[in-house]
From TrEMBL:
PROSITE patterns: MFS. It comes from Azospira oryzae. It is a multi-pass membrane protein. It holds the Pfam family MFS_1. It is found in: Cell membrane. The chain crosses the membrane at residues 12-31, 43-64, 84-102, 108-127, 139-161, 173-192, 221-241, 261-279, 288-306, 312-335, 347-370, 390-411. Residues 13-416 form the Major facilitator superfamily (MFS) profile domain. This is Sugar phosphate permease. Keywords: Cell membrane, Membrane, Transmembrane, Transmembrane helix. It comes from the Bacteria. InterPro entries: MFS (IPR011701), MFS_dom (IPR020846), MFS_Efflux_Transporters (IPR050189), MFS_trans_sf (IPR036259).
């Protein structure tokens, strides 16, 4: 009997507690993911970085996160989420403390790498827990609701982080975040239940065979590319470049720019919930993804023009951008529903890898492109980038978004259910 159909109130309570603890860890991972945007100015001053170096510092998280997606999918499908969430929390704690205490850019890079390594397991573990513990017809809704709550961490990485960093310093914040990571890791050990569902044995033949079947499945790849384009441009823009862009091009104060970022994240959180719920209620995936990706790409045109808009207009655009960005949240369901149910961890991790690979590439690429057209202006020894320079960086991210939109037309419609069929044996 599937786990979501078994047990009484105690079983339901256990599943709820398991999901709540993982969502709390997911909140912290979102905070770490987008924190560089809120303190970009502080990091530039602390380490005297160029745009390319700042992009590399922020992207280090995404490099290791990308590399870990497939191994994480394998681990949650074999060992279960509990053990890797515990270890991940401890590694992220060490990295956050090191990042907060770093005296040099290299030390900060190591700390950021450890943070990325530690939190890289959280999301796939959460998807696995939802997949094996709850009704698959509610998968997108539950993922959206979890992301709605989890995204509070990204909201905190906007205006609240920027304001707090000016009063108690960004270093103290990351030391505190490290302590919280350790506590959540321990909580996962005691409260997370791996749940039911069939798991493959930890056998290399079984594991590589399962991974190969996901990778060979042509229906997997459109979701991966959509995630690459939409999530990647989101991670690059909101994760680093949005705040300095708004301050320099639109001449907003740091508080105004960071509040735009918080509104973006709030819109994204709401979008994840409502888009997932809409998709489940319509019984369709593909048209929702296409419509959201199209609107998201249209909004990039405003940032490419560098037109100065009223403050109310930029707030509205950032909120709308957050809502439409959330369309990529359906890609995990799209990939899961065209692959074997027992390989849900692997299929979602392969899809998730697309967005983080793009984030890892786009953050330093945008910075490198801006350095190529920088006019040499300095202020207190720090490079100053003008509107035309930022346009080049924005173009890199907009191009990725367009790639995701085009790929959305190849996503396979599943009707919000698993449509995978085992290959028929030969004659």
């Amino acid at each position: 009997m599937p786990p979501h159909q078994s047990g009484g109130s105690s079983a339901r309570t256990a599943r709820a507690v398991t999901l709540a603890v993982v969502i709390a860890a997911y909140m912290l991972s979102f905070f770490h993911r987008f924190a560089p945007a809120g303190i970009a100015h502080d990091l530039t001053l602390a380490f005297q970085t160029t745009a390319a170096s700042l992009g590399a510092l922020a992207a280090t998280y995404f490099y290791v996160y990308t590399i870990m997606q497939v191994p994480t999918g394998v681990l949650v499908d074999t060992l279960g989420p509990r053990r890797i969430l515990f270890l991940g929390g401890l590694v992220a704690a060490a990295g956050s403390v090191l990042f907060g205490l770093a005296d040099t850019l290299n030390e900060a890079l190591v700390g950021r790498t450890l943070v990325g390594l530690g939190v890289s397991v959280t999301f796939i573990a959460m998807l696995k827990i939802i997949a094996v513990n709850f009704d698959e017809r509610r998968f997108a809704t539950l993922v959206g609701a979890s992301m709605l709550v989890g995204n509070l961490g990204s909201v905190l990485a906007g205006a609240p982080l920027s304001l707090l960093a000016q009063s108690i310093s960004w270093r103290g914040i990351f030391v505190g975040a490290g302590a919280l990571s350790a506590l959540l890791g321990v909580a996962c050990w005691f409260f997370v239940k791996d749940g039911g569902g069939e798991r493959p044995r930890f056998d290399r033949t079984v594991i590589f065979g399962g991974l190969a079947s996901v990778l060979k499945n042509r229906s997997t790849w459109p979701a991966v590319v959509v995630n690459f384009g939409l999530a990647g441009s989101f991670f690059s823009f909101a994760g680093l470049w949005a705040t300095p862009y708004l301050m320099r091009v639109h001449e907003l104060t740091r508080a105004q720019a960071s509040s735009h970022l918080s509104l973006y994240f709030a819109g994204f959180a709401l979008g994840c919930f409502f888009i997932g719920t809409l998709s489940d209620r319509l019984g369709k995936r593909k048209p929702v993804v296409i419509a959201g990706a199209f609107l998201y790409c249209l909004l990039w045109l405003f940032w490419l023009t560098n037109i100065r808009l009223p403050l109310a207009a930029t707030y509205c655009l950032f909120g709308l951008m957050g809502l439409t960005t959330a369309s990529f949240a359906l890609t995990w369901a799209c990939a899961k529903e065209v692959n074997p149910p027992m390989l849900s961890g692997m299929s979602t991790s392969v899809t998730n890898m697309g967005g983080f690979l793009a984030g890892a590439l786009l953050q330093p690429l945008a910075g490198w492109a801006m350095d190529q057209v920088w006019d040499g202006t300095l202020a207190n020894g720090v490079r100053v980038y003008g509107p035309d320079t930022f346009r080049v960086g924005m173009a890199c991210m907009a191009a990725a978004a367009c790639i995701g939109f085009v790929a959305s037309f190849w996503v396979k419609e599943t009707g919000c259910r698993n449509i995978w069929q085992a290959p028929r044996p030969g004659p």
